[in-house]
Write a structure and sequence with these properties.
single chain; alpha/beta; Spore Coat Polysaccharide Biosynthesis Protein SpsA, Chain A; 2 domains; 8-stranded mixed sheet; 7 helices; 23 strands; globular
């Protein structure tokens, strides 16, 4: 083996990031942490990679497969608990190449090349690491990410109103809808499948995957995911009861259906309403 990766288990400083699955599979700038690492290792010349996972190994396997996407041979081993690098070396040293023994073992708690920027100590550290990773997020195996202008990166199948303001630096993922007069940035990260209504704004913060942000809502210095709002600096968490302000587009769709149909009907009466249906259909197909 050329490299050994250790997937992290739950981290108390960032519980919301692991709410729906493994931390190593959570979306960061539209791609999981394990995908960044596999791309990095493939570019460094690795051929075989061993991944240790004690949390949702089946989710990890479904995401990375056998490594063919990166030209790698992958093996995923389920552990009973998260091992330290020293423990992993003791257990798997005989399977590692001589060079990998010293520098081929990594715990996935930082982006490749950024060990000084830990991700999971706190939401504030996580956001700082995301901002540092922004210029590096377009990995060689990644397609469809375009730099509209300096510091503004946009994914595939987005609708961005000509009246919206994008302020660098910012990241906008795939299948994102941004309405008229919405403001994104500076220091804004919009993950895949997000819907920003007209007049909303996101500055110095993150909108999690498949999240709806309502008309004129202002997200600043915070992480919004579904109906949950986290203040990045303090880590304090708030549930937003008004689904017209903040909610998940995919989670508990059956429960949301009745309440959202009225809102969708109102939106579709507007100039950009038909694009909302197109956006939701694209997300349903993806």
């Amino acid at each position: 083996m050329n490299a050994l990766l250790i997937c992290p288990w739950m981290r108390p400083g960032v519980p919301l990031l692991a709410q729906s699955g493994s931390l190593s599979c959570a979306p960061f700038l539209g791609q999981s942490l394990v995908e960044y690492w596999l791309s990095h290792l493939a570019c460094a010349g690795a051929r075989e990679v061993l991944i240790l996972a004690d949390d949702h190994p089946e989710e990890l396997g479904a995401l990375v497969g056998n490594g063919e996407r990166w030209g790698l041979k992958l093996e995923i081993i389920e552990e009973q608990r998260e091992l330290s690098a020293a423990q992993a070396l003791l257990k798997y040293e005989k399977r590692l190449d001589p060079g990998a023994v010293h520098n081929g073992i990594a715990v996935l708690d930082h982006f490749p090349g950024l060990p000084e920027s830990p991700i999971f100590n706190s939401y504030n550290d996580w956001f700082a690491a995301l901002k540092r990773c922004l210029p590096l997020a377009k990995t060689p195996d990644r397609v469809g990410v375009q730099e509209r202008s300096a510091g503004i990166q946009v994914g595939l199948h987005c609708h961005i109103s000509s009246q919206a303001q994008l302020r660098a630096p910012c990241w906008i993922g795939k299948h994102v809808f941004i309405g008229a007069r919405a403001v994104v940035g500076p220091d804004a990260i919009i993950e895949d499948g997000v819907f920003l209504e007209a007049g909303s704004s996101v500055t110095n913060g993150v909108i999690g995957k498949d999240t709806f942000v309502g008309q004129f809502a202002e997200i600043a210095g915070s992480f919004a995911s579904g109906d949950t709002l986290v203040h990045l600096q303090s880590g304090s968490t708030t549930k937003v009861p008004d689904r017209f302000l903040l909610c998940a587009l995919r989670q508990n769709r059956a429960a949301q259906k009745a309440g959202m149909l009225a809102r969708l009907g109102e939106l579709c009466s507007k100039t950009e309403g038909h694009l909302l249906w197109k956006h939701l259909l694209l997300n349903k197909e993806s």
